[in-house]
UniProtKB/TrEMBL annotation:
Residues 1-116 form the Ig-like domain. One of its GO terms (cellular component) is external side of plasma membrane. Keywords: Disulfide bond, Glycoprotein, Immunoglobulin domain, Membrane, Signal. It comes from Poecilia latipinna (sailfin molly). PROSITE patterns: IG_LIKE. This is Ig-like domain-containing protein. GO terms for biological process: regulation of cytokine production; regulation of leukocyte cell-cell adhesion; regulation of T cell activation; T cell receptor signaling pathway.
Amino acid sequence: PNLIEVHSSTLTFNLPVTAKPGQDVILPCRSAENKPVTVVQWRRPDLGSGYVLLYRDEQPDPENQHPSYQNRVNLQDRQMKDGDMSLVLKDVKTTDGGTYQCRVQSEGSLDRKLISTVQLEVLPPGESLCVML
């Protein structure tokens, strides 16, 4: 069999993250690039122009943040050690379910590269995470 090797500087995964309303959840995003990151942008494409979190100049930029995410989101590691740009979403609501995109702009770059896409599934209240067979 032929083996095809794929080398990429970014890691994209579509693993669903499951949460219950009221929980705090971490949406993973990690970049393997060694350049300093100047901007981290988390978006939900279905929300239109407002973003979930924009982090630039080493601080959150609330100007165009979607109102439903204000005071509920932050980076897991503000220093972004080891390329960790995971998003912490506090007090999950059923309306938070959807697809999240993590984009990153590195020093010296003009565009924001899509690093990871994460699907958040929010269980209806009362439904448990484990399934009994």
